[in-house]
Germin-like protein
Amino acid sequence: MISPAIFIFFLFLSSSHAAVLDFCVADFNAPDGPAGYSCKKPAKVTVDDFVFSGLGIAGNTSNIIKAAVTPAFAMQFPGVNGLGISLARLDLAAGGVVPFHTHPGGSEVLLVVQGTICAGFVSSSANTVYLKTLKKGDIMVFPQGLLHFQVNSGGSAALAFASFSSPTPGLQITDFALFANNLPTELIATTTFLDVPQIKKLKGVLGGTG
């Protein structure tokens, strides 16, 4: 029988994520792969690699979804490469929406700092809907890979900040995946049970063909 002390010791070892290097600033001039960007040589790293100033500027919400996401992922913020974290700013004009989407590479925590946002996600096991109207100071978590959305449910602009458990969480918006490319209309109709006229209308709005 394993003693509690030994069990705790091995639990500590198995849960440790100690890194060999202090950091791995992304080197955009070197190849990247499934594990992320290659590390910049320490001699070429500067303090600016660990600073990102873009989240203080409101995004342009004059688009079809009346929303803007300003990411601070490894591609924009090389200092977070390899650290398992990243951030993003979400601006939602009145009536703005971030449609159903997923982050295949990480979980998300959303913090509302202005306005009112209706947010929710759908479980993969039972298609259970978890829905909540969030106000200033509220936070909500969206588990990795699950479909989720945000909608401005107030009459004025809303602002939120999202943190992710990955420097490259990825993003796939369901509407764009279906209607903003050359996926054949007939195939979409077969796999989604949508009417062909509606599919063609959505393709026209989002720029898809086929």
Observations:
- Residues 6-16 have pLDDT under 50 and may be disordered.
